[in-house]
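Appendix B. One record, verbatim.
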Amino acid sequence: MSASISTSTRRRILRGAVTVALVTGMAGGLAACSGSDDDEGSGKASAKSSASASTSAGQGAAAEKRLGDLAQKAADGGSAGVIVRVDSGSGKPVELARQANWTESDHRIAPDDQFRVGSNTKTVTATLVLQLVAQHKIGLDDPVEKWLPGKVRGGKAGGGKAEGGKAEGWKGKGGKDITVRMLLNHTSGLGDFLLTPEFLPSLTGQQQRTWRPEELLAITPQQDPPTAPGEKHFYSNANYEALQLIVEKATGTKMADLIEEKITKPLKMKDSFLAKNAAWPSGKQHVTGYEPDAERLRGILSGTVDLPKGVGFAGPGRPKNNVDTVAIDPSWAGAAGGMVSTAQDWERFLTALMSGKLLPEAQMKQMRTTVADPEGGGYGLGLMKVDTPCGTVWGHTGGLPGYSSEVYTDESGKRSVAVLTSTNFGIKEKSAAVSNKALVDAAACTMLGKPLPSGAAAE
């Protein structure tokens, strides 16, 4: 996006689309699931067992077919490509991939393809921070200034009004008023650097530039209107850029190396890593991501964002007014959203975390302590809580140009679900949003062992 976009327009882009669609991901994709498990016949115990096993197998096959049909409908309806993996905690996981015909000349998608998981990375970062908290190397109530003197701007919101009735702005002691906990649960009062004209061209791939966390913090604005640290939840990548610097300072180790040492190697996540540039490892298949071209994007965001004509994502043009965004560099995201993984690898991480294998009980309790999220549900320390009639799920969402992901587990961490979609803004179109949500609903309810939603999924 052009650096000449007006301030008001940039703010609307951030709030109306970029934060929700590119960073937080499509949170709220989970909708109401209804119904209950059917009771199975009667008779002798052995007959009951046999009938139950037979019924369970039949239900599993039916659920897999239903998910496959929904995934194909979503792909054809605007999702471009979809990977679904559901592990119900017993039996063989459901793994499937579907794609629109026009994408097949670029890449034949498979369930184990690598994928940019975006802000799901925040859960890994939070896990590393809490491991250091358990080791007494970092304190959740440590002021940010202790670790990053002078690098994080912010402080207490001014109580007065400036000329013209506008908020006076921020006053206080900068990073001294912001704690590590506030960074983790996005209550720091910091805005997001995605707002700035310096960064937007990199986000859309119009400019190739390598950003360091310090540089991103330097261009991070304050929230508008100003918000005091600890006052409310406001999702911002700047929080996790700061956490990356804190973790690296506390350990003397680079974030990518620490992730490999503490997370991916112990869990045998062989297809997962923190991206340092736009390159993909040779010999491993990866999903090709797409976004609507400039004209189509403008139509999608009309009514929410006054997007200037011609503004869009960089990349080769593809059929049906799409752009191939696979070469856009995601390395700026770092600890906030830079990881590459697979559906299976990420489920392995999330189930290990939620089942207590990565953190002591005290730190897991802290991680699950949530604040209200204006977008719905609750946000803990790098972890989202979503309550549906099918049950409570925990995890995160992620979004980068061409990539949208939702990965969740049940409360015990024994069951998991991943839905990876090879577009982000593409599923904001009404029909595409309906079919994508129906797929996520069905996958979540299948994971929880509940009947597939009959109404929404059939739309």
